[in-house]
Amino acid sequence: MISEQCFLPVRRCFPKLDITLSNIYNLSFGLSIPEREKGEEVKEKSESPNMQVIKYINGKYPKALVTCVSYGTGSECLLSYLGEFGSSAQISAGVSVSASFEVAHRTSTKLHGIYDLLFLTLLKRVVWKHAKALTKIIDVPKALKAWTYKQFDEAVFCQMYGYSDLEEFWDRNNPLRDVDDISVPLLFISSEDDPLHSNKHIPLDLFKYYPNFFMLMPKYGGHGGFLDDIAALSWADRVVIDYLEAILEFTMKGYTINYNKSPARSTI
Predict the structure, then answer these.
(1) Exposed, middle or buried by CB within 10 Å (0-12, 13-18, 19+), for 16?
(2) pLDDT tens-place string over residues 149-178
(3) Domain with 80 in it
(4) Which secondary-structure segment (H or E) carries 160?
(5) How many structural domains comprise the chain?
(6) What is the C-alpha to C-alpha distance for residues 138 and 191, in angstroms, rounded to an integer?
(7) Residue 38 included in any domain
(8) CATH number of the domain to which 198 belongs
(9) Is pTM beyond 0.85 here?
């Protein structure tokens, strides 16, 4: 179990969950958690920290319908979880705002613009802040010296899980690896001018072949912004609530949705 002060809020919320430090580190960055470390036997799905959280909530509120909302790279966790567990995910619906669909940019040997630099600096700051707790599972000095995502991920995730390179790591942990098994309605809100996740990386085939996937793509909104004006709250948050309320109302009335996927398969 975790004793570091930085993770105490997680333990206060879910004191009975057996979540390891490396899993919390992954969840905090919204990155997909590997099914297993390289060379390790497949773990039981019930050991997934995401499933532990869902089961805990269901245990506390057995009549509640659970929904999930992800922002940015948190979409990698959400898509991985829903794909891995399929109809057993115990989730009624989901929303992903400013989703990260494409992981290829994580293997790039250069940064693309000031936002990439700022985000990488933020990641390094988190590593530096928790260096004492992380030093046994990642290469902290190499991570702090990294100036590309590739260098950072090699020092962190390849080191953490024993992979030889990022290509091998992402082959096992691409968030869309089990997309065929996602069985709940999912709304995606992504702007055309997102500076972190270019819309050219959005796999539009998803919304052609999967009738339970919906995309709202305004021309402007930035990354997680979606403001009507500089002093306004995000209109995307209002859309999220309205969408989930509609899905839950539909579900609680006893209606079901038969998502008959197109006979043509996605090339994702």
Answers:
(1) exposed
(2) 889 989 998 988 888 888 888 888 888 889
(3) 62-252
(4) helix 159-161
(5) 1
(6) 34
(7) no
(8) 3.40.50
(9) no
